[in-house]
Request: fold
Amino acid sequence: ITVTQYLVVYLSIRGKIVATLIRPNKLLYRMLRPSARWVRRYVHPQSWLGGKLCSPFGVEITRSTYSGIPGVKFSPKIRTEQKAIIVFFHGGGYCFGSSLTTHRLGVALMAKHTGLTCHSIDYRLAPEHPYPAALDDALTAWQGIVDSHPNHKIILSGDSAGGGLSLAVMMRLQAEGGRLPDDAILFSPWTDLTCQGDSYATKARVDPMFTPSMPRDCSHYYAPKETDKTNPFVSPAFGNFTGLPRMLILCGGNEILLSDSKKLAEGAKSAGVDVELAIWDNMFHDWWLFGLFIPETKQCLTKVSAWLKGN
Reply:
């Protein structure tokens, strides 16, 4: 079992520029403490435009629904495997993000690099729809995809909150006897909504994207006071990993959610899961979503593709 593989990345010039450009958002957040709705109004239009202009050639992007849950289908023109697909849950603290805005560029590139069709699910967002809305939508969409692809290999993937949601889905499926994914790929997964990891303190200064208050605010939106944040279906870090599928975890060495990935890998290993944790030194949270703007995106997705082929 490969538990930890350190992929030493010396941040490229373009990577340094991107890290520098996103750092002022931390100061803005401290000053304004914006609501989730405000963040959507600020982030979604910019990311939609960037994704629209920079989406890779060779990937067809179409809106879809999965048992009534909206989403987007990313279909590469060159398919490496006809009987395999990826189901993807986007991040955004359960409060913002969508398949055609924040995640369009990253998921399109993942489809192209892996040669697999990706089905990205747009679950309901908090605070309008707190827990368990996202989990309910994810399970409904998952079952719809399973029913319509009975003979396919299905890989479950997600980033940040979507990575935690992927784990919650797997734990529910395991508990209820549902069909589990064949593999799981998790990018910087947010697995502990109590936000108590050591890296919240040790990486707070070097993380160019997040202040510790950002995930804590999102946690309160998604799981209000009456919700037990140690519930494994809210914070999968507290759950039982026994019987979960082979798992690849990728995270940056300079992000406050680093502890979440480490704790997940340790828990999965202890439960006998075939898990690989790839820590990309010097990288920030969800760097792979920046597409062609930084070369580290290709490096990350090349790793994902090679891992899938190595099964």
Observations:
- The beta strands are 4-7, 59-66, 69-76, 84-89, 117-121, 153-159, 183-187, 246-252, 275-280.
- The chain has a mean pLDDT of 94.
